[in-house]
Structure formats: C-alpha cells, structure tokens
Amino acid sequence: MIFKSAFNDLDTYLKEYLYTVTCNDLFNLKKDFYQTVEALTGSTANLTGITELLIFRHLYHTLGMTAPIFNKTVSNGKNQLSIGKRFMGKNGRPQEPDIVIERNGSITHLISIKNALATNSPKSFEKDSEVIKNLMSKNGPNQVCNNGIVDIHRIDNIRHEQHEDFKSITVVFSKVPDRHQRAIDIIHEAYNWHRFIILENNPKTFMEEIKKHLPLLIPEG
Q1: 98 with 115: CB under 8 angstroms?
Q2: Does the pLDDT of residue 91 top 80, yes or no?
Q3: HSE toward the beta carbon, residue 162, CA cutoff 13 A
Q4: Rg for the chain (alpha carbons), in Å?
Q5: What is the rounded CA–CA span in Å between residue 206 and residue 203?
Q6: pLDDT tens, 186-209?
Q7: Domain ranges of the chain
Q8: I want to staple 163 with a disulfide (CB 3.0 to 4.6 A). Which of 55, 74, 107, 171 is the partner?
Q9: Per its UniProt entry, which superkingdom is the organism in (predicted)?
Q10: CA-based nearest residue to 157, from 200, 196, 123
Q11: What is the mean pLDDT of the chain?
Q12: Per-residue pLDDT for 135 more than 90?
C-alpha cells in the first residue's frame, strides 16, 4: 500500500501539471527516484522502469485516457496506447518498442526512451543493417556507435506494411555528451520522421516538445 500511494501521488502530479511540467522536471523526478534508491541500497545498478513510467503516464493523460490498462494497452476509442507491445520487423525479428500510439491498427507514433546516450556495439545481425551502415558512414571512421543509432535501426525495422508512415521520437533523460551529439544531428538530417528530446536542463514543457515533434490530437490546456 505504501508504494501504491507513492506512485498514485506521482501520477496525480503528472495529471495536475500536465501542461506545465517541464522536461527538466521529469528529469529531476527520475533523478530523485534514483538518489532515493541509492541512499537506501547503495546502488542503482540494473534499476529500470521509472523512465518508462513517467513518459507513459504523461502520454496517458495527454491523450485523455481514463480506462485501466489491460495487457499493456489502453484505448480511448480513437487512439490506442501500448507499452512494450511486440511487432514483427522487416528482418523477421520481433521488436518491442517502449511506447506506441496506434489508430485503426496502424502505428501513428512511437516513443523510445533512454536514460542516457552511451556507446553501444550493434549485435552481429544489426551490423549489416543499411540504416546503421548509412549512419556510421556519415558519422565518420573515428566516431563511436551509440545506442541512439542502434535504436534508429530497430525503429526503422518496424516501419513496413501498415506501420510504414509513423513519426517517432527518442526521449533521452540525461544531457548528451558532445561525442554523441553528432549522431543525433546526423539522424535528424537523414530521417525527417524521427527526433530526439533531451530532458535534462531543458526548460520547455514536455507538452510543448511532444506537440512540436509528434503531431498528436492533443486537447488544448
């Protein structure tokens, strides 16, 4: 019951301040959670879930959802919001994006969530991806591959058949080091359907950012 009360308070906060909570506020909520856990346990290793919770619940209220979640999905009759839903990729491998918004069985928006951008080595089958090859060729021989680049491959892998036209964003909670900013710039130039939103030190409201990058049917507040 203690945990339920704490998370319900968090959800109430997100709903009440839906139009005014800033990107940096969301970062600080995550930071406070991590600092509290570290103070109690001495470590935050393998701690996951709070970033997805914050973004999912913000979108839940943004889309005017009121129904309970069933099997990772909730619907308001127009849009369907899902977390961790499985889709089959173009390469025949399943993908489970963090959050998707669907209408009439087609993805309209996809949201990927990262605590931070970091160096990431593609898996063997991912190295042959045209997306990764293209981005790394633009990134230059001395640049590292990061999880943002690998993420674009995985998102693009879902863009086929009825899902070929969706918009997507990667929400990154922590500020991005200079060595990884170049990859973001290259991705923005190469793929007009994808954008990054960095939360730390970002004074804009999260609502403003998603309205800008994801043309959702959002009621004005």
Answers
A1: no
A2: yes
A3: 8
A4: 18
A5: 9
A6: 999 999 999 999 999 999 999 999
A7: 2-213
A8: 107
A9: Bacteria
A10: 123
A11: 91
A12: no
Token pair of 80 as six digits: 């369907």
Cα–Cα dist 126/172, whole Å: 22
Q: How far apart are CA 209 and CA 100, in angstroms?
A: 17
> From CA 49, how far away is CA 71, in angstroms rounded?
17
- pLDDT over threshold 70, residue 221: no
- Non-local CB neighbours of 217 within 8 Å, separated by 6+ positions: 63, 78, 79
Q: What is the DSSP letter of 143?
A: P
Task: State yes or no: pLDDT of 129 exceeds 90.
Answer: no
SS3 82: strand
In a 10 Å sphere around its CB, with 0-12 CB exposed, 13-18 middle and 19+ buried, how is residue 61 labelled? middle
Check residue 198 and give left, alpha or beta (phi > 0: left; psi -120 to 50: alpha).
beta
Q: Is 73 exposed, middle or buried (0-12, 13-18, 19+ CB in 10 A)?
A: middle
Q: In whole angstroms, give the CA distance from residue 140 to residue 131.
A: 15
Identify which of 71, 102, 99, 74 has the alpha carbon closest to the alpha carbon of residue 84.
99
Distance CA 212, CA 53 (A): 22
In sequence order, what are the beta bridge partners of 113? 171
